[in-house]
From TrEMBL, chain A:
One function term, GO molecular function aspect: cobalamin binding
InterPro entries assigned: Cbl-bd_cap, Cobalamin-bd, Cobalamin-bd_sf, Meth_synthase_dom
Name used for this protein in its record: B12-binding domain-containing protein
Organism listed in the record: Domibacillus iocasae
Lineage, highest ranks first: Bacteria, Bacillati, Bacillota, Bacilli, Bacillales
Matching Pfam families: B12-binding, B12-binding_2
B12-binding domain residues: 87-216
CDD domains: B12-binding_like (cd02065)
PROSITE patterns: B12_BINDING
From TrEMBL, chain B:
InterPro entries: Bact_StressResp_Reg (IPR051932), STAS_dom (IPR002645), STAS_dom_sf (IPR036513)
Stored SUPFAM superfamilies: SpoIIaa-like
Domain (STAS) ranges: 143-219
Pfam families in alphabetical order: STAS
Protein name: STAS domain-containing protein
Length: 216, 245
């Protein structure tokens, strides 16, 4: 873990929204890509915060403050980035009971940077709501987020039901659990698993180079 | 037995191996019937569980409730010999609600901020376009071009236009250039400085420059220069044949 990551974690734990934002801007000016900023710096800092809680060095309240600061910081950071309009659409949601949205928010930002229209349906979205929203908006890609092991059984019903939509959306699953668990039993052979932001950026680039969605 | 059973907060009596020897009715309601304390502790809180196994302490842990949800609790353990009492206090959900409200307010402010920022960028873009259009190069014939200047002759106007005007003049293969000051309002020192640099560039491109439409208020800004070949007049007087040559 590099010094910027630790520095950002400390700033977020202090609720220092402006300084955290400035740190990301400095890195951007030094030539860091969004992918690296989101992966190595922001995700790294949040992992560090999680570890501090596991070690009993900080409280749940501290962790919540860091999460809120992080959410605000990345939203502000992303607002600065110019987006090119596109017709491709990606929808993002967390399975029911799942509250962790930061990861998929950064994923949605990467889609937007590459010109996609996105719709964040947020945390804890019941399947029937997800189905209705997707049926109405008809996204090309539906990204599901799950970070808690106990929520995995729900994932299967989301993936299988959303894949039956008549416009054949590509289902993507993003999860920190992918680093340690095989989630394929909860998904279908068509499902794409996103283990890191570089992989996601590569997939998005593949689409803009003309490959069909779902071909990868 | 009776005392523990009636505890209002979920309470366990455990041994050093973390076996549950007894639990309160409130513990049963919240966590179900448990044989080992570790069964309701989330993987990411195991390190703290090890700490509690060794000493009396209070820590925050994620516990799996009877509804199969992971929720944060403040867990206190008091050892007496080889047995301990464990009490679990739910971390106040009101705090989370307040945090959520603060965050929502923060986001609303931020959205207003982001919108303002976008509007500012749009306004800046519009200003640049306006400046670019305040000094167009108009072709009068194959040899002659006219630059009518509009508005204030300032740093911003010259910044936005001088390079592109010089390029257009050069690429158009013109020889004569009329720069019309009729619609110029105020002139700033930085603006006129850049204007003189623009004239220098044009002279290097071998242009015959005629500055026309000068008003008395403009004269002081144009008097200190060493552009001997530039001519001045109060209005454009083109020879009619020059328009068709």
């Amino acid at each position: 873990m590099n010094t910027e990551t630790i520095k950002l974690a400390n700033l977020m734990l202090e609720g220092a929204a402006d300084e955290s934002f400035s740190l990301l801007c400095t890195l951007r000016n030094e030539g860091w890509t969004s992918v690296d900023i989101y992966q190595k710096i922001v995700s790294g800092a949040m992992q560090h915060v999680g570890e501090l809680w596991e070690q009993d060095d900080i409280s749940v309240a501290d962790e919540h403050l860091a999460t809120a600061t992080c959410d605000f910081m990345i939203s502000r950071f992303h607002a600065q980035i110019k987006k090119q309009p596109s017709i491709q659409k990606a929808m993002f949601l967390c399975v029911e009971e799942e509250q962790h949205t930061l990861g998929m928010k950064m994923a949605s930002f990467l889609f937007e940077e590459n010109g996609w229209q996105t719709r964040m349906m947020g945390a804890n979205l019941p399947l029937d709501h997800a189905l209705k929203a997707a049926g109405k908006w008809k996204p090309d890609v539906i990204c599901l987020s799950v970070t808690i092991l106990y929520h995995l059984p729900l994932l299967e019903s989301y993936v299988k039901t959303l894949e039956t939509l008549p416009f054949y959306p590509q289902i993507m699953v993003g999860s920190r659990l992918l680093a340690t668990y095989d989630l394929s039993p909860y998904c279908t052979p068509r499902t794409i698993f996103i283990t890191n932001y570089q992989m996601l950026a590569d997939w998005i680039n593949d689409q803009s180079e003309g490959n069909e969605i779902g071909a990868s | 037995m009776g005392l523990l059973n009636n505890m209002p907060l979920p309470t366990f009596r455990i041994d050093r191996q973390l076996n549950v020897l007894e639990y309160s009715e409130s513990a049963k309601r919240r966590f179900g019937s448990q044989v080992r304390l570790g069964e309701i502790v989330d993987e990411e809180s195991y390190r703290k569980l090890v700490k509690l196994q060794e000493q009396s302490a209070t820590v925050e842990m994620a516990l799996l409730t009877a509804a199969s949800k992971l929720e944060p609790f403040s867990v206190s353990v008091q050892w007496e010999g080889e047995e301990a009492f464990v009490q679990c206090v739910e971390i106040n959900s009101k705090l989370a609600r307040l945090e959520q409200m603060v965050y929502q307010q923060q986001m609303r402010l931020a959205e207003a901020d982001f919108q303002l920022m976008e509007k500012k960028e749009e306004a800046e873009d519009a200003l640049i376009k306006m400046k670019e259009r305040s000094a167009p190069l108009i072709s009068l014939n194959s040899r002659t071009a006219l630059i009518p200047m509009f508005g204030n002759l300032d740093d911003a106007l010259m910044d936005q236009t001088k390079d592109s005007l010089a390029l257009q003049f050069h690429n158009g293969g013109y020889e004569q250039l009329y720069i019309d000051f009729t619609a110029v309002d105020a002139i700033t020192l930085l603006g006129i400085e850049q204007f003189k640099q623009f004239i220098d560039t044009l002279l290097l491109l071998d242009a015959n420059i005629h500055i026309v439409g000068i008003k008395p208020v403009h004269a002081p800004f144009l008097k200190d220069h060493n552009h001997q070949s530039v001519t001045y007049s109060s209005s454009i007087q083109l020879k009619s044949e020059s328009l068709y040559s």
